[in-house]
Amino acid sequence: MAKQINPNLNEEQKKILFEHGTEVPFSGEFYLNREEGIFHCANCDNSLFRSKEQFDSGCGWPSFTDPIIKEAVIYREDDSLGVLRTEVLCGKCGAHLGHVFPDGPAPTHQRFCINSAVLNLEKPEK
């Protein structure tokens, strides 16, 4: 469970972040994002991913090749669907973000499959 729950979260965000839910594929705000910026955890504002690391994997959720820094996320084994996966949690508050798979593009070959609802995009100042 997260250290502290942001009181401004909506019900969908709470379900994903704290009950390990997921949003409907291809429905999220950032699925096909083309804007520059840094994605932050909707709960604690931890910097997670750069938009330049985002790619269209076709999976239905925003996908990234690497977190902004190694400590931005933590990993946990997840066998909740009867298959072993690697869950991705916020490195600061411990909230559920999504999963990572070893089928992404070079150079990392990682596909961080993250729910849009748990992300906020900080756009660069112009």
Record the SSE blueprint.
Elements (H helix, E strand, L loop, with lengths): L10 H9 L18 E4 L5 E4 L3 E2 L7 E2 L8 E6 L6 E6 L5 E6 L9 E4 L4 E4 L4
Antiparallel strand pairs: 1-2, 1-9, 3-4, 4-8, 5-6, 6-7, 7-8
Describe the structure.
This protein has one domain (11-122): Metal Binding Protein, Guanine Nucleotide Exchange Factor, Chain A. The protein is mainly beta and 126 residues long. It is 7% helix and 30% strand. The chain has a 6-stranded antiparallel β-sheet with strand order 3-4-8-7-6-5. A 3-stranded antiparallel β-sheet has the order 2-1-9, with no helix packed on it.
Provide the CATH topology: Metal Binding Protein, Guanine Nucleotide Exchange Factor, Chain A
Task: Give the name of the CATH superfamily.
Answer: Peptide methionine sulfoxide reductase
Q: On the 0-100 scale, what is the average pLDDT?
A: 94
Q: Indicate the low-confidence ranges by residue numbers.
A: none
Could you tell me the number of beta strands? 9
Task: State the strand order across the main sheet.
Answer: 3-4-8-7-6-5
Largest sheet: 6 strands, antiparallel
CA radius of gyration is: 13 Å
CATH architectural group: Beta Complex
The number of helical runs is 1
Helix content: under 10%
**First-to-last CA distance:** 37 Å
* Elements, N to C (H/E): HEEEEEEEEE
CATH class bucket: Mainly Beta
Class based on secondary structure composition and strand pairing: mainly beta
Strand-residue proportion: 25-35%
Number of domains: 1
Approximate shape: globular
